[in-house]
Amino acid sequence: MIIARFLHSSRRVALDIKQQLLDLNSLHVESLPFRKIIDVASQTYKSPVPTDHSKLPLVMIHGLFGAKQNYAMVGRTIAEKTSRQVIGLDMRNHGGSDHVLPHDYIHMAIDTEQYLRQLGKPAILAGHLMGAKVAMLVALKWPELVEKLVVIDNSPVASALDSQFTQDLRAMCHVKLDSELAKVKLKNLRIEVDRVMQDYEKDPMVRLFLISNLKPRASSTDTLPIDFRVPVMSFLKYGVLEKMGEWPATEVQGLKFEKPVLLLRGFHSPFVPDLKVFDEYFQDIHVVNYDCGHWLVSERPKKFVADMIEFIED
């Protein structure tokens, strides 16, 4: 009887939350501060071999809803095999970086430019999806900071994101609004969060990726509301995902990056439908196709590491 009442309550709460998410005007969302530039959080992936500081560092930028820890495994492997410093960055509103407005490609590029200048030497810059557009912008606007560029499955064009990204965002918003989840014991929390997300995202690998954004709970008895490292409610209410399909062509009109570029393309992904669009901006580009979808770093990590090493060590 108790279990039945709990399940009935959970279903009622779920229906109420779904209605709230459809009526964006009803959502109470705290405003974020406006910051033209922030100090992005960073992490150097540790390796058991000494770093050769005569080599330029590899700086890696995650995709939408990602964070620097997404590259931890491949980053450590590349660092170990090349004796090179490998660094992951958190873009604004992701990972350990500040939650601020605006969230667009120009401001993420400015944040990244500042970080690279603080390094004091050029870097090899790599980015995936959102991070790929940031990396391309930085290379085009400040080529003196980028020795080589790696574009992971995205194109320098404006193209609307698949509606599934909005569903994934709604999944995280639902979790944040669900007061029942705050009562779940820590050991069962991820299981219950995954169960809620199944209504929005059918791919278990993507759900695991989204769940990795959960902020850690202070203790097993913590009953504070669930929260994420991404300001998901602000992203939903203010249409941030629409900006993630954009490409600020006017900012880079007439610019061309003449140094080596590696394009890693998921053959079953929709993000690089036409290679000709790269000709406007890049002169020396090498393309490697992957027999997988968009998540090629996690789906083909060994090939990814091998291709990266071949390119950066050449």
TrEMBL record:
* Pfam families, per database record: Abhydrolase_1
Which Gene3D superfamilies does the entry link to?
alpha/beta hydrolase
Q: Which residues form the signal peptide?
A: none
**A Gene Ontology molecular function term of the record:** carboxylic ester hydrolase activity
Q: Which residues form the AB hydrolase-1 domain?
A: 57-301
Keyword list, A-Z:
Hydrolase
GO CC terms, sorted? mitochondrion
Q: Where are the transmembrane segments?
A: none
UniProt family annotation: Belongs to the AB hydrolase superfamily.
Query: Would you tell me the protein name for this molecule?
Result: AB hydrolase-1 domain-containing protein
Supply the source organism for this entry. Answer: Australozyma saopauloensis
Taxonomy, top ranks, is: Eukaryota, Fungi, Dikarya, Ascomycota, Saccharomycotina
